[in-house]
Amino acid sequence: MVDSYEVQHAPSLHKYVLTFLASSPNLLPFYSLTTAFAFAPTMATTTQDKEIEHQFPFFRVYKDATVKIHRPPVQTIPPSDDPITGLRSKDAIVPSKPPVPVRIFLPRITDPTRKLPVLLYIHGGGFCMDSAFSATYHNLVATIANQANALAVSVDYGLFPARPIPACYEDSWAALQWIASHAESNGPEPWLNNHGDLNRVFVCGDSAGGNITHTVVSRVGKTGLPGVRVVGAVMVHPFFGGTEDDHMWLYMCPENEGLQDRRMKPSVEDLRSLGCEKVLVFAAEKDHLFEVGKKYVEELKKSGWSGSAELVLNLGMNHCFHVFEPNEDEARELLQKIASFIQQQ
């Protein structure tokens, strides 16, 4: 049993793998596992004699540039059709440079003439772990798509160390642009052409994905997204600057701008220009990100942004409890709140 794994920076190998997958989409479910094992996993005994240069909550860095992720590589599952709910899923490739894998979820269609809201989902994992193709996030996004009756696109963005930050932001932006390419119902993905309402687009993410959600939606406000109306953004227990995680983020982003980097600590300008009409933020009381989540909403309301912001406090709960314990009552309540947020006209 592998309890952790080591990789070294391998952007050229990662680019080769993505290019190969672009021509072999049936292999997409194995993408994250391939990335995780870009170099063979090794037991802790192989690194016990190495000298540690940096120690972070999610990984450690040795002097030879080896990065050891503290959690085992994620196990992925293929897309599938649910015979009970009628929800279908499939994988696709966003043809950016490098290509970005996504998983698409389509709820049961009862009225072919009625188009569905579109949700871009951005998974969590500390910018260095997990996948849109993991069982955890497959099931989570499927649940939201079913409850909200929304067409969901879950992006499998590049992870540190194979692809350092800002890859996560650029890949997620590429996925949103790809969604926007279907504005005239003539894009490359039939499900989006036939069933997606691009006047009702939402962006949602948890933890690291919540942070990425902010940056992506802020970019919409600054640069625009022709043919698309981003109605709302959902950030569940989002990471922002102001905690012990700051230096870990800075290490994962070699081209950072220090502790005031606006991707980590949003500026007033970025908040004011947020490119959506409403925002829903969840903050968990026992989460070390509790205060920064609350502060984000406070600063957003003071920024001069014209939209509406709602803060939901998950009292007595831990970070991303809905991801790790999705069948608990509190998790069901959180997911239903997201679904209602998407369904509201």
Automatic annotation (TrEMBL):
Position of the signal peptide: none
Family assignment from sequence similarity: Belongs to the 'GDXG' lipolytic enzyme family.
Domain (Alpha/beta hydrolase fold-3): residue spans on this chain: 119-322
InterPro entries according to UniProt: AB_hydrolase_3 (IPR013094), AB_hydrolase_fold (IPR029058), Carboxylest/Gibb_receptor (IPR050466), Lipase_GDXG_HIS_AS (IPR002168)
UniProt KW keywords: Hydrolase
Protein name (database record): Alpha/beta hydrolase fold-3 domain-containing protein
Organism: Stylosanthes scabra
Name of a matching Pfam family: Abhydrolase_3
